[in-house]
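Q: Start with the shorter request: fold the first protein.
A: Done. Sequence, then structure:
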Amino acid sequence: MTVAAGRVTTGPAAPAPSGAGASGPAEAPRLAGGVQGQFRQVSPKVLICTDGYRYGGREFDRRAETAQIAAGLPGLEHVIYLSLLHPGDPRPPAGGALRWAEVMDQPAIPAAGFEFEQVPFGHPLWILFSSGTTGLPKAITHSHGGILIEQLKLQTFHMDFRAGDGCSSTPPPAG
């Protein structure tokens, strides 16, 4: 589960677990009750979050909401957070939370020792949620195979990629 601002530093948090066969939703940091209602449907084991975000020149501290979300998820085993607003503040947004830097400060896994989990075509990759305008938001599951087909369609029909073509994508500046 990822509750983080869409920034270049949080980008790897969403697709990285898929290499281990894990799946889960990603959600923008917002009202804790709404996120809990969604995440409880999928019983997360790990929550990856940020302490807040900047938008429109203002800072939005989300540590209290993150603590509330973590407290409301009974099967949660780990909270990992990235400090975007308060990098020098040692207080975690939830009890027992680990900093992203601590988790990543491990010896590199040699390429020969890394194995991707092989999953079937229909195995869940990402879980999105409906808006919830007619009740509790409904989970919408995207499979590994379905995403591959979507990418093939996008790159072939919409982007007209051909063999030998290249692509460069630049994220918007953080702010």
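Q: Next, the second protein, separately.
A: Sequence, then structure:
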Amino acid sequence: MTSSATSAADSTELPSALSAELTSLPLRHPRQLLDIWFWHDAINWLGAKGQAHFKRLWWAWVLAVLCLWGFSHYYWVGINITKSLPQRFFFIKKTDLSVARDDIISFRWDGGPPYPKGITFTKIAKGVPGDVVTVQGRDFYINGQFVASAKPYSKMGEPLALGPTGVIPPDHYFVWTPHIDSLDSRYALTGWIKAEQLQGKSIPLF
């Protein structure tokens, strides 16, 4: 997963060729941009032409890094690698943790496999504190309005337990996307998202 990943009900892996290409680059984490040794290695990696370019326009690179550093305090870019939302790229506003119904939000995944704990999911806040979640069969309703049906099994054939029902408590949210394979609050693995898991409000780019 990348900085923001909206998952479907089954895992997705990067192609091995892409993974190999990414691991060949010197940058491993944005914080390296502030590390002088990263720049030393990066200039060597760029070769003679890259070194000449950097020496000529070093001030522009420094300005760009400072702008990126300042921007990263308030926003970061999320990439959706599944089809659970139609958009692929998002700005995640880290300073905005307020949530209203139908907001697109990003949060830390605290569930289990197929995804590692701590990756970022991006979904729609369909239910907010005080809403009543009910289920009939495997059909979920919020305040009496139909939301979506839950699949009985994942694509791997594993049974999918239903998520919680009842009144959504304070600082909890029912998250959802319209995709049939979305791993969201319909399922116990995701459940209701806690406020402490929130990473920010997401702004779709394209």
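Q: Describe the second briefly.
A: The domain at 75-204 is CATH 2.10.109.10 (Umud Fragment, subunit A). Helices lie at 16-23, 36-56, 58-72.
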